[in-house]
Each structure stands twice: as structure tokens, then as C-alpha cells.
Amino acid sequence: xxxxxALFAVALAPLAASGQDVNxxxxxxxxxxxxxxxxxxxxxxxxxxxxxxxxxxxKAEYYLAQxxxxxxxxxxxxxxxxxxxxxxxxxxxxxKAVEGLVDMQQHLDEQxxxxxxxxxxxxxxxxxxxxxxxxxVLARINYLVGTIxxxxxxxxxxxxxxxxxxxxxxxxxxxxxxxxxxxxxxxFPGRPGEAEELDQAAxxxxxxxxxxxxxxxxxxxxxxxLALLGxxxxxxxxxxxxxxxxxYERVPRYSRYWDQALFxxxxxxxxxxxxxxxxxxLQALHAPQFAGAFQPESWILKSTIYYYSxxxxxxxxxxxxxxxxxxxxxxxxxxxxGEDMELIPAFxxxxxxxxxxxxRPVYLWIRNNERIREVMRVLGHVDEEKxxxxxxxxxxxxxxxxxxxxxxxxxxxxxxxxGGTLARSRLREAADNLRAFSDQAEIIRVQTxxxxxxxxxxxxxxxxxxxxxxxxxxxxxxxAWNYWKFQGEFWxxxxxxxxxxxxxxxxAKPGDGRSGETPQ
Length: 520
Known about the structure:
The protein has helices at 2-8, 20-33, 37-50, 54-70, 74-87, 94-108, 113-121, 124-130, 135-151, 155-163, 172-184, 195-211, 220-237, 241-248, 258-271, 275-285, 296-308, 312-333, 343-351, 360-367, 370-390, 399-457, 462-467. By secondary structure, it is mainly alpha-helical.
């Protein structure tokens, strides 16, 4: 907003031509310069609707948007700037409106409507003109349009846009993170032939975020955490499980993405045959502090770890816990996942401050979606502006108030549709996940029963085998660490540092030298 505020600080020059429209414009401009915004806005609106001279009409539209922004009505300003941008480059205030639109996006942190509008407007016809915009404005445009390109699967286009964001931009870290995600995507053109080159470029992009310092970067703390998740996922996909674990364990404890890091680290440690470490990550994730987390797959992973260790009683206990926690959720979701679920009711399910019609973990999981949070945030701005304008005595009953309220309501309805689409998709995703993991649970349950039968038929006394084994303390990471035996109590300073040791119920294979040793 700094550039926009600078524009406000400069007295605007009146038009030199004569005529009624020009006189009205000059009166509006004088009021604007004097800070009399309630007087200026209706005059600019009158000219924007009916001025005969295109120059007067165009300038009035632009300064009406400026008036809205200065009055603390950013959504109304965005609507007015958007109308100018949609009019095309022939509009006399076109480039200034593009700049104003980017300013409003930053002010609102709006990630759906404004990026889509910029994406639509950023054509080959205007590209040469847009490069004359201030450097930071162009950087933000490249980032915002890059997000749309990524969502729509235009990966090479997204790469080009994101790589164009310079290091001195405030959105550089965000652009580098998204660039890493784009390059690591399995759908990126050129894979698998260029997989190594793309992977290394993605790793470099994530590391650029982690190396970034300073408060000038927008949302740097959250972006760094996302970069660690991105780095961990890429390392995991490459089979570099130890390196993946190192990335996941750098995500700060109790940060926004820590529960996701715990879950994914469980998979990385499992793949690295660190069964005790994997169970330790899941132990933290299943602590009471994460009672509201929606992580059904974590119980499937836990049962899989026990299955690979032939600890069949623990497999059954874990699957029973999965059924107890997530079985009722699946039944509770059934009324909200049908094809006839309308968009606005779907959004209303998750937009309320509390909704007991949905399982709480699912409700929180959907509300935590960044795009849904953004929709709710901008809807809050829309409602605030509607209240402000309806209570604005100077505008009451005017054409300005009537049309602005109608435009705000139109934006509100569009946002509800966007939010409803996102909410309905997440509801179905939650239901699909529960069905898929329930099916996996049943497969593990059946395979466990078959393996138990095979051991019995082979005459293996598994209980005797387990009783002969000892459990040892896990290895200490360093001299500054202490060991405390877990006794069923979750202490906040211990969560995240758990490490299991396991017995092994599998019979030793001939020649492998193992007789049920304890993984550390």
C-alpha cells in the first residue's frame, strides 16, 4: 500500500478544459485533495456513469477507486479498479488501475478473484505495457498469475512467471516456494527424462526460501515451514528417507504445519526402516493436543509398522482404534457428500464459527484450507463495507450507495460460490479418504489373520519368541539428552521427542542371523 498512500499525499491537478463535466470533475478533485471524501465520491461516481468526455469519465472512474481505497473500502476499490482493467488497455487509467488492483490484493490478501482477473488480463497484447509498471508491482503480478497457472496445470508457464520474480521483491520467498512445488510435480513436462535436473532445481528453490532472512518478505515464517515440507516430500519421493526426516524435523514444534510434518516424517522413518522412530512421530501426532487433527492415514501407517514387525495383537488394537475414531466420522459425513449437495450450503457448513453437524476434525481440516480461509476473510471485508455504506449518512439513498451495495453483493455471491466449490470438494475428499483407508484397514486385518494362521500351522510359538526378547532404551542423540520412560502421560515438553523400541514377532529366515532382534 505504500505506493498507493504516496499517491494520496500528492495534490491532484484539475483538468484545464471547460464544460459542465470538467467543472464537476474539478470540484470532486478539490474535495478529494481536501480529504472531503464523502463529497468527492458521489461526484466522481456521477462522472463515471455519465460524463461525455472519455478522458473525464476515465479519470473519474480511477479516482473513485482511489476514494474508496482512501476511505477504507478496499473491496469497493477493487471492484472499481477491476472494471477499468476489464475495459482494456484503451482506458486512459488502465495501467494505474492495474497497479491499484495489485495494491488491493495485498491489502485484502485475496487469492481467488484478483489473481484470476490478472491472469485473464495478462495477455500478449498488454505484456509489453505491463513491463513499464513499478518493479514490485510486476513481481507481484508474476507471482499471482503464477499461482493460477499452477492451479490449472500450466507448469511451464508457471515456472516462467515465478522465475521472473526478482530476489528484492517482497514475494520472492513465496515465489521460490511455489517454484519448487511446480518443478517437483510429477506432471511437469519433461519428466522422467529430466527428473534429476528438475529435482535439483526444486531443491535449490526450497533452499533459497530457507536461506532468506529479513522482515521484508511476506509471510516468511509460514513460507519457510512450507519449504521444509516441500523439501521433505521431494527427498521422500527420491527415496532419500534420512534426508526427508531431517527436513521434516526442522519444522518448528507446535507451528501451523507441525502435525503434517509429524505424519509425513512417520512415513519417511518407516521407509528408512526406523520403525521405532516412525511410531514415535505417530505417538506425538496421537497426543491429546492433536485431538482435533484429521489424520486417518496415520492409524493405517501405525498398523502397517506393527504388521511388518509381526506384532499382530498391536495391529488389531490399532485398527480397532481407527474404527472407533473414524468410523463414526464416515457415517456423519454421508449426508454432505452426495451429488445434490449445493455450493452455498456446503460453504455454510464450514464457515460458521462452530458446526456440530460435521465431525470436529473434518470441520477443522476444511477450515484450515488456505483458500477457504481467504474466502472467509474477504467475505468479512465485504460485510464490513456493506455495513459501513448502509450507515453512511452522506451517501444514503444515492445512486452511488445503491450501485456499490449491489456490486458488493455480487462479489459476495461469487465468493460464496468459490467457497462452496472448495468446501464441497474437501468434504468429498474427506469422505473418500475415510473409505479408502477403511478398505486398507480391512486388507491389513485380513492379511494379519492369514499370517497368524500360517504361524500356527508352522508350529511357531510367537508368544514364547517375544518373551525371550528384551526391550532396550533407544540410542541417545547426544550427551545433552535424557531418557524418560513413557508412562501414559503426555507432557507438552516431551511431545515430538518420542522413540519406540520394538520386539519382533516374525520368525527368523534361514541364514539371516536374526532371531527377533530389537529395532532401535
